[in-house]
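Good morning N.,

You mentioned wanting to compare the apo and holo forms, so I went ahead and generated the holo version with glyceraldehyde-3-phosphate. This is what I fed in:
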Amino acid sequence: MFTATTKILGKAQRGHYAVAHFNINNLEMVQAIVNAAMKLKSPVILATSEGAIQYAGMDYLYALAKTASEQANIPIALHLDHGRDITIIQKAINIGYSSIMIDASPEDFENNIALTKKIVQLAHRKGISVEAELGTIGGAEDEVSSRKIRYTDPLQAQEFVERTGCDFLAVAIGTSHGAYKFQGEAQLQLDRLREIRKKVRIPLVLHGASGVPEKMVQEAQHYGADLTGVEGIPEAQVKAAIKEGITKVNTDTDLRLAFDAAVRKAIMTKPKDFDPRHILAPAREAMQKVAEQRIWVCGSVGKAR
Ligand code: G3H
Ligand code: 13P
Ligand code: ZN
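and this is what came out, ligand included:
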């Protein structure tokens, strides 16, 4: 039903393009992302964070993703993002996710290895692949990241992958979660990425990669949002990172911004209309546009077959 994440990312790695991972929280997000991927004939990875699972329930999110994948004629994987709670990880493995992430990145090197290795053994027994994280991706979201970036060390990355047997590795090269990524401009460490790539053969993952497009921010602000100080990763830098060997690009914040701007606009411009469908349909459309753009950035257009 779902496509194995290893299959999607293995093909992408061989073809020198990346695949977009999008975080999902509700029906409209799933439809927006899958419509975009179908339109562009691209594979796609739907991901649920522990926060999303707390909000909507794993069974509901699983059912939404399953329906999408049964109806769509493109490869779709379902992934657990930033797994930290063993009960949630175990449930995702049992219910049939394509892959899970164990994020033990706040731990020291040895503990990160020990925890990751344990999860790899659990997941591999059921044929499910595992993403792990070494270094820390910065960001403002307390659930999934610390505020400071701890860059991934290439030599440690090699040892980490060898000792844990993980299938994909999230690297810290200067990206950051959320909309408030930096004070100043993004500066990805592509030299570091190149060194990691030389030492690690498995697909590498770029978290915190949202672009925080200025037009979308202005639109949201026009309808009342306060987004002072937001900053994203320019698309050119994401493309450069893909060229240096990134195979999976995670996006959540840009979908949230599109949703926010569209909902605010619908409510403010049609004060007499209180039908949730009239408020959420424009948000779904706006998120689809974001998803399409991210798929173009990844270079996976037409790669569904
Ligand atoms: O990288 C994390 C995603 O943006 C998920 O965020 O924990 O608020 O759902 P969340
Ligand atoms: P953004 O906050 O930049 O969209 O990153 C999302 C992410 O890394 C999900 O794992
Ligand atoms: Zn992340």
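The pocket of glyceraldehyde-3-phosphate (ligand 1) is lined by residues 23, 49, 51-52, 81-82, 141, 143-144, 177, 207, 252 (CB under 6 Å).

Happy to go through it together on a call whenever suits you.

Best,
F.
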